[in-house]
Amino acid sequence: MTDRELVTRAGAGDQEAFEQLVRDNQNRVYSLAVRLVGDREEAADLAQEAFLKAWQGLSSFQGESSFSTWIYRLTTNVCIDYLRRKKRRQEVEPAVSLDDEDSGWAEPADAGQDPQRKLEEAERSRALSRGLERLPEHQRQVLVMRELSGLSYQEIGAATGLDLGTVKSRIARARLALRKILLEDGNFFDSPSSNPTKESKRR
Amino acid sequence: MEHDRCLELLSARLDGPLTGGEERELEDHLRTCPQCRALAEQLEQLHAGFAGLEELEAPEGFTGRVMERVREKRRPIPLFRRPQFRALAGLAACAAICIGIYGTGRWGGQDLSDKTLVTEQQVQQSDTSISAYGVLPGEEDGSESAGNTVASAQAPVPQNDEMEVATGDSVATQGKETVPDAGSSSAVQGSGSVTDGSDSAASNGTDPAAPRLQASAFGADEDAEITLTVSRLPEGAQALLGTDAATSYSVETGQETIILSSLEQLEQIEALAQAQGITASRFNGESGTGIFLLVVAGA
Questions:
Q1: pLDDT class for B130, splitting at 50, 70, 90?
Q2: Closest C-alpha to A12, from A52, A72, A55, A53
Q3: CB within 8 A of B248, min separation 6: which ones?
Q4: How far apart are the C-alpha atoms of A77 and A57, rounded to whole Å?
Q5: Fewer C-beta within 10 Å: chain B N or C terminus?
């Protein structure tokens, strides 16, 4: 059954069709929530909430986009709402200091001692995942929305209340910060020679 | 080219094409700046990395839990576990006051201010989230009609020095309307009902076009997650509401009936109303309260 057929059936109240849609999308939705909010337990709740919203809104879902795009959007919105509430509740957690030249360099990773280290895709993927977690929340959010949600700058601006220029520069800065984190991590970029910073010479 | 500028162009290029001018500007710079070439390469690797970013496994039983909650929405929850049960005491208190108002209207010549003040205190003591109402009885002959006895939340206090203002903090702040001259009828002052209703037109709820106002005057809707107002109860709705004690709880104010219901019931009744061509309007209040009200605008 195609996505569209499942959506039509679920919209008419077919729970089995909806269950299939949940199963097909649960990992993507959960991953997105984890990366947006940075907390697995919270992300699981938010992902559930997103699916429930989808269930309630299915009858009005016009099918302008695919279900997976739509549920991604719902998840993004649910997570953003959560982050806003959280921000109101508590002071913003101190972000990883990206300007601190010494951060992350004192304890070299084991991989750094292995000149032959083989960067498997899985390891790079894990490194990227770790790096994302270390990004300051405001940067991680927009970058994840861009790279994982696939939202346009306009859409990110609408979701976060930021103007286009801010979205654009924040994404650029998030990439720069993530690059730095991953250079420190040492398991993502496969050619150390392309690292132009002084830090690479300190290895 | 400044480093910031280069970074922004490199980043923007990953997300979509640059303008011709920007592209040339960037390329010219990259030709002469090895640092930025390295940056460009790394940012591209980063961008590509997201495509291969592993999906995390949703927790065990995730789909099952979602479906459980989907089914929960179909199944009535036992009465005492319903969050909206909280509202019952408040609604009951409101009902008591409505009866009092009705009485005031009927026997407007009598001085009931003492009684109504007591009622108001009881409401405040009832420790519910439903707003309390003070009753401002007319001075002389408030006996014209029962239909006039419930004024809107937006009605200002009649200018009458001899009246006791029962709820000092409750003067409505928006959408003030003309009220009958002091003494012509009694008025209810809606405490805390100022959250909405600026779109309301009628002051006494006899206009079915403004049923929302009555809900507002009744004061519960500010706590209700969703208030669905229907011009009349659709066929089949009674069966949906069933014999459940909580759902059959209702308050008749003379102009309308307010029924405490579940979200599921509201949604089904809304669908019925639409199918039967009955006017139904939904008002979304504060979310998360778990209180869902069905308002049937009466004649």
A1: very low
A2: A55
A3: B241, B242, B259
A4: 14
A5: C
Give me the residue label for tokens 């592993």. B54
- What angle in degrees, to the nearest 10, is found between the helix axes of A3-11 and A67-89? 60
Measure CB to CB from residue B53 to each of A129, A146, A196 and give the nearest one: A129
User: Which residue in this structure is represented by tokens 């000092």?
Assistant: B168
The whole-angstrom separation of Cα B291 and Cα B152 is 22
pLDDT band at A11 (very low <50, low <70, confident <90, very high): confident
Q: Which residue has the higher pLDDT, B97 or B22?
A: B22
What is the reported pTM? 0.48
Best probe of the A interface among B53, B68, B264, B284, by most A CBs < 10 A, is: B53
Local structure of A150: helix, strand or coil? coil
Cα separation of A85 and B219, whole Å?
27
On chain B, the residues whose CB falls within 8 A of the CB of A153 are 15
- CA gap B103, B107 in Å, rounded: 6
What pLDDT is recorded for position B251?
Answer: 63
Cβ contacts of residue B17 below 8 Å, gap of 6+? B23
Q: Decide: residue A196, CB within 10 A, 0-12 exposed, 13-18 middle, 19+ buried.
A: middle
Residue B21 CB neighbours (<10 A): 8
- Look at residues B130, B140, B133 and name the one whose alpha carbon lies nearest to residue B157: B133
> For residue A177, what is the nearest residue in chain B, using CA coordinates?
B43
pLDDT for B106 = 61
Q: Which CATH number is correct for A1-97, 3.65.10.10, 1.10.8.10, 1.10.1740.10, 1.10.10.10? A: 1.10.1740.10
Radius of gyration of the CA atoms of chain B, in A:
29
Give the residue range(s) of CATH 1.10.10.10 domains in chain A.
Answer: 102-203
For residue A20, give the chain B residue with the closest CA: B63
User: Is A188 in Cβ contact with B52 (below 8 Å)?
Assistant: no
Residue ranges of chain A assigned to CATH 1.10.1740.10? 1-97
Of residues A65 and B197, which shows the higher confidence score? A65
Neighbours of B107 (CB within 10 A): 13
* Closest of A69, A76, A71 to residue A58, by C-alpha: A71
Q: In what order do the strands lie in the sheet with B292-297?
A: B250-252, B256-261, B292-297, B226-230, B280-284
pLDDT top residue among B45 and B143: B45
Is B67 within 8 Å of A26 when comparing Cβ atoms? no
The pLDDT of residue B46 is 94
